[in-house]
Structure formats: C-alpha cells, structure tokens
Prior knowledge:
Layout: E1 2-11, E2 14-24, E3 29-33, H1 40-47, E4 55-60, E5 63-64, H2 69-74, E6 76-79, H3 91-101, H4 106-119, H5 135-147, E7 153-157, H6 165-180, E8 184-188, H7 192-198, E9 201-206, E10 209-214, H8 216-223, H9 229-242
Parallel strand pairs: 3-8, 3-9, 6-7, 7-8
Antiparallel strand pairs: 1-2, 1-4, 4-5, 9-10
Amino acid sequence: MIELQQISKSFGSLTAVDSISFKVEQGEIFSFLGPNGAGKTTTIKMIVGLMSPDSGSLLINGTNIVNDPRTAKKMIGYVPDAPFLYEKLTGKEFLNVIGNLYEMTLKDIAKGITSYCEQLDMDEWLSDRIEGYSQGMKQRLAFAAAFIHEPKVLILDEPTVGLDPKTGRKIKDMLKKKSRNGVTVFLSTHNLNIAEELSHRIAIINRGKILGIGSVESFQASTKYEGNLEDFFLDIIEREEENV
C-alpha cells in the first residue's frame, strides 16, 4: 500500500508537486500519467525516499518513509527510468550486492538470482561485465535487482524503455502475477497502451496537480467520453491547459 497525504514539493519559485493525495491499495496496479514536467518524477523520488516532501506525509504499508526510511525502503523495489548500475561488476556480482544491501541470506540471494535469471533470459550474459550490456540487458538486470528481495511495493518509471517486444510481454505478465499475489505496483509511463492494459486505476497529473483518479471505465462514465485512454488523456490535458 502507498498513501500520499497532502504532499507538496517546491524548487525555489517552482511548485513541482502541489498538495496531492491518493492511496494505492495492496495488489493494485496503479498508473501515474502526465506530460513531461508534470511532477511525476518528483513524486516518484519522494515515494522511494530519494527526496523529502516539503509538507504532507507519505506511507509505505503504514510506515512513514521520512520518519523511518530504513523500514520503508526494505519493502520497495524500484526501477528508475535510467538505472544506475556498477558497470565494472558482472550482472551476477551486482545482484549479490543488491541482495546483501537488503540483508538477504546467501541462500535466498542465490535462489532469487536463479529464478529471475531464468524468467528474464539472462543466463548467457549474467556472468559478463555490465559495461558490455545493451540498454535492454541493463533494463532486465534492473528488474531482477528490484524483484530479488520480493518487495511488497514496486515503483516503476518507464519500465519498458529499451526492451524488445518479447521481454516487454514477459515483464507485463510478471507484473500481473505479482499484483495477483498482493504486490502493490506503481507505474509511471508515457506508453498509454501499457497503462490501459495493466492498470486497475490511473491518476493524471499536470502542473503538479492531480486532474483525476479512477479506472478508464469510471473516467468514461463520468465524462460520457468513449475514446481510448490515449484520446481521453490528451483531451483532459488540453482542457486543463486551456483553463490556466
């Protein structure tokens, strides 16, 4: 579960996130949508504890990440839009480092590496140095690093960038399975087809404010709008900007 209560963040005179509140339930896949500069990345950085809000509270499964970051971060798996990897390590060495950071046993680390290596087709190159990986290989390794400690909350920022269609499909299937097993999935993406396919609910943000939260069906019902998510998203953003 993720709960934001009146969260705000400013940089000088710029209000990047303006008193937003929402709750993502256990087992829910929740997409966070908005144009560039809308406040998505700032929100994500606050959720994962890389940045502190100016005001409001942010809870991960009931734990305030500002007051108790160590406990909260143990429950999170995070895939940023541009993962930072230690490129002089092999993929296997990197996953061992991540497992140790999460205080996993050696047995559980080995089990996790074997499992996700198989699921993400990494057998042939996991023992090679990361500096020789393609973007898609690095993205798969980033997913394995986020999954290895079996977190209760997944935060994903543009997760399918650089992935081939086959791997993209595997990732989507894995996220659906994790959701069914009670993992909370928070997804930020510009790929509205993925958001429409996976999400139980979506939130649309622009200029730091939430414009709406609900399922695609609920948006259609409340607005009498019959287009797909892409059509609706573009329409609501355009209407909001016309009112500024």
